[in-house]
Design brief:
Layout: E1 10-13, H1 17-28, E2 34-36, H2 40-50, H3 59-66, E3 72-75, H4 82-91, E4 96-100, H5 107-120, E5 123-127, H6 134-145, E6 151-155, H7 160-163, H8 170-174, H9 176-192, E7 197-203, E8 216-222, E9 228-234, E10 242-246, E11 250-254, E12 261-264, E13 271-272, H10 278-282, H11 287-296, E14 304-305, H12 306-321, E15 323-325
Helix pairs in contact: 4-5, 5-12
Keywords: Oxidoreductase
Pfam family, one: GFO_IDH_MocA
Family: Belongs to the Gfo/Idh/MocA family.
């Protein structure tokens, strides 16, 4: 039996840690959403952390007893349920949805989601919050001043020993590339744009029990402006996420992604840049600006539509599996 909670014209779906982070942001904006959770234990913990009551029970039942659904929703459920929950909300008449990355865990699921939301006429955005971090905003400005990137390099190495100990479903482990690593890929291609060619190779198949499809990734590509992108990630070794953008005047280094270091042309020194990161320290980095973009249209071009995400996911799939695109 479902229980529901009252709220305004915003629905928050999920009652886990990510929903707690969104609730903090919404509270700062004086927004008290309706919340659909699932289990009673997670709803209790959510209330203890946020002061918001979350509905419990199957989502379909909560929708059924809700009456009139809010027109806008933020979806923060577990990765394996993102696509099905977003589809259900769209078909129930929700007009605008911000769904946590990666929206779907494989290409078939993503394509089915795109078809469903188009049929429903729902506006859907995918929440890659790192696009909104102060370090990225400053990097974008400097790259623009320099005339764009001449090359981009990124590393999406994962801490495999730590990950293997997590309590996750087999599907979430096997689709970790989409569920986690695409944070880095999205940021790298945000700087680079759509490629005209890519060549990718993958090694380490079956080297990791929890991720048998591959563990070592490398490749390169080019965009229509002639810029080069390359990547190397080794999940069998040490490493960390990072993105480097080279312009004709400087190298911009985001490693960790929340910080920006700059090396000027002709110098070996790397200088950490001061950023306006007060809100990134107060909330989950990038989240407040992302929510303001979704709700109020501030810097909305930085938000990625579901269709745009699906287009770039074709490149991510090639990086994940290996192969060649274009000349």
């Amino acid at each position: 039996m479902a229980s529901t909670t009252e709220g305004g014209d915003l629905l928050l779906v999920g009652a886990g840690d990510m929903s707690v982070a969104y609730a903090a942001v919404l509270n700062s904006l004086r927004i008290r959403p309706a919340v659909f959770g699932r289990g009673k234990d997670s709803a209790r913990r959510f209330f203890e952390k946020t002061g918001l009551s979350a509905g419990t029970g199957p989502l379909a039942e909560q929708i059924g007893v809700c009456g009139s659904l809010p027109s806008t929703a933020i979806v923060t459920v577990n990765a394996h349920a993102l696509a099905s929950v977003t589809t259900m909300l769209a078909e129930a008449g929700v007009n605008r949805i911000l769904v946590e990355k990666p929206a779907a865990l494989d290409m078939a699921e993503l394509n089915a989601l795109c078809t469903a939301v188009r049929a429903a006429g729902t506006e859907v955005y995918v929440a890659y919050n790192r696009r909104f971090m102060a370090s990225v905003l400053l990097a974008d400005r400097l790259i623009g001043e320099d005339g764009g990137p001449s090359s981009v390099k990124f590393d999406f190495t994962e801490a495999s020993a730590r990950i293997a100990k997590l309590s996750k479903s087999r599907r979430e482990f096997e689709t970790w590339f989409y569920g986690n690593s695409t944070h880095v890929l999205d940021l790298a291609f945000h700087f680079f744009g759509a490629p005209s060619s890519l060549e990718a190779t993958v090694a380490g198949q079956a080297a990791l029990d929890w991720h048998p499809s591959g563990a070592v990734y490398a490749g390169f590509g080019r965009n229509p402006a002639g810029a080069i992108i390359c990547w190397h990630a080794n999940w069998l070794s040490a490493g960390r996420w990072g993105v480097e953008v080279m312009t004709t005047k400087r190298k911009l280094i985001l490693q960790p992604l929340e910080k920006l270091r700059v090396q000027l042309h002709g110098s070996f020194a790397e200088t950490e840049m001061e950023t306006d990161d007060e809100v990134d320290r107060a909330f989950k980095p990038g989240l407040l600006r992302q929510v303001r973009a979704f709700l109020y249209g501030e810097d909305r071009s930085r938000l990625q539509t579901l269709d745009d995400h699906a287009n770039f996911a074709r490149y991510y799939e090639l990086i994940r599996t290996g192969g060649r695109l274009g000349a």
